[in-house]
Amino acid sequence: MDYLEGLNPQQRAAVENTEGPVMIVAGAGSGKTRVITYRVAHLINKGVDPFNILVLTFTNKASKDMRERIGKVVGSEAKNIWMGTFHSVFAKILRVEATKIGYPSNFTIYDTDDSKSVIRAILKEMQLDDKLYAANFVFNRISSAKNNLISAAEYLNNDQIQSEDVQNKRPLLGLIYEQYAKRCFRAGAMDFDDLLFKTNILLREHTDVLNKYQQKFKYLMVDEYQDTNFSQYTIVKKLAAAYQNICVVGDDAQSIYAFRGANIQNILNFERDYPDLKVYKLEQNYRSTQNIVEVANSIIANNKNQLKKNVFSANEDGDRIKVSRAFTDNEEGKLVAESIMGERTLKGYLYNDFAILYRTNAQSRAMEEGLRKLNLPYKIYGGTSFYQRKEIKDLLAYFRVTFNPQDEEAIKRVINYPKRGIGDTSIDKIIVAAATHDKSMWEVISNPHMYVEGRLANQLNDFAMMIQSFMAEAKKLDAYDAALYIAQHAGILKELYNDDSVEGRSRYENIQELLNGIKEFSEREDIEDKGLAVFMQDVALLTNDDNEKDKNKDTISLMTIHSAKGLEFKNVFVVGLEENLFPSQLSLNNRTDLEEERRLFYVAITRAEKKLTITYSTSRYRWGTLTTCEPSRFINEIDAKYLELDVKPAKSNALEGGFDDERKSWTSQPRDFFSKPKPTSGPAATAPRPKTTSLLAKAHVPSPGFAPSAPIEFQGGMEVEHEKFGFGKIISLEGNLPDVKATVFFQGLGNKQLLLKYAKLMIVK
Q1: Does 254 participate in catalysis according to the annotation?
Q2: Alpha-carbon span 197 to 177, nearest angstrom
Q3: Distance (Å, whole) CA 665 – CA 661
Q4: Which terminus of the chain, N or C, has less C-beta within 10 A?
């Protein structure tokens, strides 16, 4: 069979062995999709009815691509395969079987907005605080419960869950879940999570249905198995129980979706479910140079919880991986933009041969500005342009009204955000009054008692006074102080801070990033007028995005690493490799989270085909304060022989050790980034120096039982311990809870300014 001839021995074995349980561990760039498609084609060529084959994927694009490839081998029979995403396949089954669980066959599928709308209605009827019970938070809590197969009744009857909700001051979450489930059922609707949750109920409570689909799906294949959650795992296990012809394909090193409920143990423990399991390892990387593959291997080797494999490449050695340092995040953006321009000019690359990958969406701002200043075309993937995000546009609209209160579009955007009782009906009244009296909206709003009556007049008066205070302050303050004043007094910061969902935290970080950019603007020495009005003129030019005119235009790709999974580019820049950013500060409390961050870095590295550049900044603005950043521990984990250091003359000696100025590369035995000069006298001078091949100094090891103290407990003069900086003393505290900032002196490090709610400090005495 011709299609088998192009496979390497490991790929061919995985394709030809079609009976019984099989796990294909597919390293990055190892031809996984080819193996899956040829395996399905091989089953059909052996005589298996395509109606008896079920292939589950995680994206519609993946299933579409696979079906097309299979069609090239077996022809029109490819159309008869049951292939699609988990949700699309089981929605199809539920349409047939829905009446067995009390739903109509034409049930509605709620999207996220529908679900949140139902939740908001319930909160209103129950008269609950929609800040404490934010719709996003409630929705995510219900989603997590369903993905762990916990019904509303089980949620309410689970003492541990109830205790947790009480502790978090949200004791009524179970009742909201119960009401939500009843509303959906009464409306004949399922949300996205229900498509899996209800399938599990169907298969559990109706053995005839389970038997029917076990007989139908005699061969199961699951792509990206490392990304399955408990609900998906349970369905697959039940369906495969009769024939056990199940093949799962995945790479534990690329499991990066725990925040969505993915459970890496599903792939790590697969052999426990199927003792007769055959394992095939696809270890040859066809995508990347040898140096890139070796760097990826050296990183992932630090994870203890993994399936061991030896990924290799037969491609050329390629360039060493460049590590570039910047002194600020804006300089980092400039550095990346200049590097892209240089590479493109030197080697003739297209713009779409380049990708910039970052840990958080907020990092795109500095990258965008660097690219714009050199007129390099780009496109944001997996999200909108930084300046087009809702929370950014909301705050910018407040700035616009401050300087031009006749801007009616900006007024309509902000007049009821955050909510202040001026809804759509009230806005309509303002518009009618303005039209009737031939006035602008602002004239009506700023003289409300002349045009409207009752409660609305008072509400508009309050809004007008707030905007007028913004106008007065903006005349006195520089851009940053004026922007911070508006963000605080408009209520945007409080609104986003109180939303503790993943999305809420991201929006809060984006506002912080905008303020950081304004802070840098206000400290520029090349402009005289540093007012907010001038900044807004700059922003108006920055947000004039011409790239949208031609969606097929050759552009640089910007995206989070999560969005980049499954993609590949000739040149990849992984930016922001700093402690507390990548790895994320939230991941430093336990090995499980830290190992997921390392897998995320592995995914980023393995997107690169020809050239990989890693960048970091030695300082970033956080809430207007310039904070010192340390290079990520992940850089430290890369063998120095694969790296090339590309830095400007350092402002400190942080990166001097091991860099040969003549060769412009690392020496074979580099010093630690933060190592101190060896003493020339005294006992320390003769003490043997420990050998090291690391690029970063070892971090402080927290004391046994280390547990951060609550921000409210701290006082000036206290001795404290930081999990990374070690022991120190609080010099001063400033600000109000929850935004208290501490200046802490750490031995050997000097003073550091820390925001207590994020700092993770423990009181020693």
Answers
A1: yes
A2: 14
A3: 7
A4: C
From 10, 11, 32, 596, active-site residue: 32
Measured CA to CA, the distance from residue 54 to residue 66 in angstroms comes to: 13
How many angstroms separate the CA atoms of 656 and 674, rounded? 9
- Tell me what pLDDT residue 385 has: 67
Give the strand pairing for 741-746 and 726-734. antiparallel
445/701 Cα distance (integer angstroms):
59
Q: Does 607 qualify as catalytic in the annotation?
A: yes
Which of the residues 97, 191, 194, 224 is marked catalytic?
224
CB-based contact 144:502 (threshold 8 Å): no
CB-count burial class (<10 Å; 0-12, 13-18, 19+) for 282: buried
Is the distance from CB of 543 to CB of 388 less than 8 angstroms?
yes
For the segment 1-30, what is each residue's pLDDT rounded down to a tens digit? 677 888 999 999 999 999 999 999 999 999
Residue type, 600: L
- HEC sequence for 161-194: HHHHHHHCCCCCHHHHHHHHHHHHHHCCEEECCH
Q: Which residues contact 246 (CB under 8 A, 6 or more apart)?
A: 21, 22, 220, 221, 222, 236, 240, 274
Whether the ω angle into residue 583 lies within 30 degrees of 0, i.e. cis, is yes
Q: Which of 607, 611, 671, 760 is catalytic?
A: 607
Beta bridge mates, 659: 666
Active-site annotation holder among 254, 306, 560, 753: 254
Q: Rounded distance, CA 260 to CA 352, Å?
A: 29
Reported as half-sphere exposure (CB side, CA atoms, 13 A), residue 173 has a value of 30
Catalytic residue of the set 191, 223, 391, 499: 223
pLDDT value, residue 647: 59
Give the 3-state secondary structure of residue 744.
Answer: strand
Per-residue burial over 70-82, b if 16 or more Cβ lie within 10 Å, else e, is bbebbeebbeebb
Taking alpha carbons only, the member of 225, 226, 227, 263 closest to residue 246 is: 225
The angle formed by the CA atoms of residues 511, 516 and 520, to the nearest 5 degrees, is 150
Please return the burial class of 581, using the count of CB atoms within 10 Å of its CB with bins 0-12, 13-18 and 19+.
Answer: buried
Token reading at 108: 């509605």
pLDDT at 653: 32
d(CA 270, CA 765): 48
Residue 687's CB: how many other CB atoms inside 10 A?
10
Nearest-angstrom CA–CA distance, 693 and 95? 59
* 468, HSE (Cβ side, Cα atoms, 13 Å): 11
Q: Cβ neighbours of residue 161 under 8 Å, at least 6 residues apart?
A: 150, 155, 174
Of the candidates 667, 576, 606, 694, the one whose C-alpha atom is nearest the C-alpha of residue 323 is: 576
pTM score over 0.70: no
Catalytic residue among 33, 59, 265, 290: 33
**AA letter at 175:** L
Question: What is the pLDDT, as a whole number, of residue 540?
Answer: 55
How high is the pLDDT of residue 684? 39
Are the CB atoms for 550 and 333 separated by under 8 Å? no
Is residue 32 annotated as part of the catalytic site, yes or no? yes
Helices 502-522 and 532-542: angle between axes, nearest 10 degrees: 120
Q: Phi and psi dihedrals of 671, rounded to 5?
A: -75, 160
Task: Establish whether the linkage from the previous residue to 418 is cis, with ω within 30° of 0.
Answer: yes
Query: DSSP label at 447?
Result: S
Q: 221: part of which helix (H) or strand (E)? A: strand 219-222
Backbone φ and ψ for 107, nearest 5 degrees, come out as: -55, 150
455 is an active site residue? no
Query: Which residues does 154 contact at the CB level (< 8 Å), separation at least 6?
Result: none
Q: Which of 283, 289, 281 is nearest to 314 (CA)?
A: 289
A 10 A CB-CB count for 280 gives 20
Tokens 């910061």, located at residue: 493
Quote the tokens at residue 135.
């719709």
Q: Is 223 a catalytic residue?
A: yes
- Give the separation between CA 635 and CA 694, rounded to whole angstroms: 9
